[in-house]
Specification:
The chain is of the alpha/beta class. It has two domains: 243 residues, Rossmann fold; 130 residues, 3-Layer(aba) Sandwich (Rossmann fold), CATH 3.40.50.920. It is 39% helix and 18% strand. It has twelve helices and 15 strands. A seven-stranded mixed β-sheet has the order 3-2-4-5-7-6-12, with helices on both faces. A six-stranded mixed β-sheet has the order 9-11-10-13-14-15, with helices on both faces. The longest helix is centred in the middle third of the chain and has 30 residues. The model has no long low-confidence stretch (mean pLDDT 97).
């Protein structure tokens, strides 16, 4: 059913369709509307679940760790400083191979205090073992949540998944969104059945102490699971397309890149602005394109290389910076091209829109112009002079 709806409410309705049994979260801007709506759905008996109020994001993550470990499909959401407070537990959830789904409403981190959008919060957990999916618009937000549970619960993956959506731009923005029927979601997403779970009738230990004889093998198993996810994610996207009749998800999406001489690689809602700039540049006769990264972790290095290996000039444009180096996405993409001894591509990195600063089509066109100049790892676009 198509509805003109706020992004946060769309997330809540998508989660409802996945039938979680336990939800726990602590409110933080701009995530709050998601869990407010879910709490209301539980209170109105429209969702049969336990909504557990807690005193912090650390407690919320700990609670859904426990509920997932008991074999109950669970959900949480957070943002910014709350995300960072969860970080200790996020590593535990991934290390225990628990297929939890979380929404990260991307927001800047302190200091200085700022509540607007960039993607520096979720980027801090790129090494945690969580799968990270980024949405361009609110339809993708809905679709990726449905796919996230199926990816996480796949027997060859069994890793948690975070769906990242840009704070305010998507969480508080209203769009026309197709909210699927429950019957179709039930056809797509089977009931949750976690084999290795806490059960009083079959006692076992999860998250046990691992000495040097075992720890490395556990981390290797997580790496294998991430490799498996690079195959599972496109398969789930294909199954989604068959059931719901639209393409959504996958590893990445190319837009006008087939004959492009200049391509921007980016993720999140920023891609919509880049597409508009690309269309205008195409009308001016310039061969521009954009590759939208959907799956950031695991990083689809080989697939991206194959898609872009013949593009002369590549820009990585991102709303995050790994201070002291470059943008994190730039570093990842550059490494995926390092395997080629004959690389002729010029790859430059651009940081933009931190703390919610506006990103315009003109700033995107400036980046395309800068691509013809020297290759540089970390240019900040839109800085105030002086």
């Amino acid at each position: 059913m198509r509805q003109f709806i706020e992004g946060s409410k769309a997330v809540a309705l998508a989660v409802k369709l996945c039938k979680p049994g336990v939800i726990s979260a602590y409110p933080i801007t701009p995530q709050t509307h998601i869990v407010e709506e879910l709490a209301q759905l539980v209170a109105d008996a429209e969702l049969k679940a336990e909504f557990v109020n807690v005193e912090s994001e650390h407690s919320a993550a700990s609670l859904v760790l426990g509920s997932t470990a008991c074999g109950v499909r669970s959900f949480t959401a957070t943002s910014s400083q709350g995300f960072l407070l969860m970080l200790e537990v996020l590593f535990n959830i991934a290390g225990m191979r628990l297929p939890l789904v979380m929404t990260c409403a991307n927001r800047s981190v302190s200091a200085p205090l700022n509540i607007w959008n960039d993607q520096q919060d979720s980027m801090t957990a790129r090494d945690s073992g969580w799968i990270q999916l980024f949405a361009e618009n609110n339809q993708e937000v809905v679709d990726l949540h449905l796919q996230a549970y199926k990816i996480a619960e796949d027997k060859d993956v069994l890793l948690p998944v975070m769906v990242c959506m840009d704070g305010f731009i998507l969480t508080h923005g209203a769009e026309v969104v197709d909210i699927p029927e429950q019957t179709l979601v039930d056809k797509f997403l089977p009931p949750f059945n976690l084999i290795n779970k806490l059960d009083i009738n079959n006692p076992k230990t999860l998250g046990a102490f691992a000495d040097p004889d075992y720890y490395m093998e556990a981390r290797f198993a997580m790496q294998v699971a991430n490799d498996n996810a690079l195959k599972v994610i496109p398969r789930v996207a294909g199954e989604f397309s068959k059931v719901f009749g639209r393409d959504s998800g996958g590893l990445f999406e190319g837009y006008r890149i087939e004959d492009a001489e200049q391509v921007i690689v980016s993720l999140g809602s920023l891609v919509g602005t880049i597409k508009e700039a690309v269309d205008e540049l195409r009308r001016e006769g310039k061969k521009a394109g954009v590759l939208k990264l959907i799956t950031y972790r695991p990083f689809p290095a080989s697939a991206i290389y194959q898609a872009l290996k013949n593009v002369p000039e590549i820009a990585v444009v991102e709303k995050a910076v790994s201070l002291g180096l470059s943008g994190p996405l730039y570093a990842d993409l550059k490494s995926s091209f390092s395997c080629s001894a004959k690389r002729t591509n010029k790859i430059s990195g651009f940081v933009i829109g931190l703390g919610g600063r506006d990103v315009t089509k003109d700033s995107i066109k400036e980046i395309f112009d800068l691509l013809s100049k020297e290759e540089k790892a970390c240019r900040f676009i839109g800085l105030k002079q002086g």
